[in-house]
Amino acid sequence: MEVLKKNNDRRSLFIGELLNIIESQLQQSVYVIEPYEERLKAPPGTPEYTTLQWTGKDVEWVELMKALYLSGCFNHGEITFKELFRSFSDLANIYVEYPHIVYRKMRERVDNRTIFLSSLALLIEQDMEKKDNR
Question: Could you tell me which of 66, 84, 65 has the C-alpha nearest to residue 74?
């Protein structure tokens, strides 16, 4: 009987230690997950899940976002570039770490500093022309 009690005590100690390890790991995982929690939530007014994925270049994304910001067409212009950029980036599943550096490089371009926006305007014009000539 005494041997049985000792075995049960050892099992209890082992299970207790195992539970402490598991609890410790769970607490550590919270610290890892917390910083990303906000990025996992959908921005207000957007679907919970989106398959939208920006597949263009980072520089094109920054160019587009800067143009939208400067247009003032969101929140009556009462929004920072950072807020607009983050909201749209979350929606399109893209992460550009330093958009201000990308924008600075765009400003250093010699000929056409808005290559992407110019190509978008050309695509729309061509589409209209094609549909007008049907």
Answer: 84
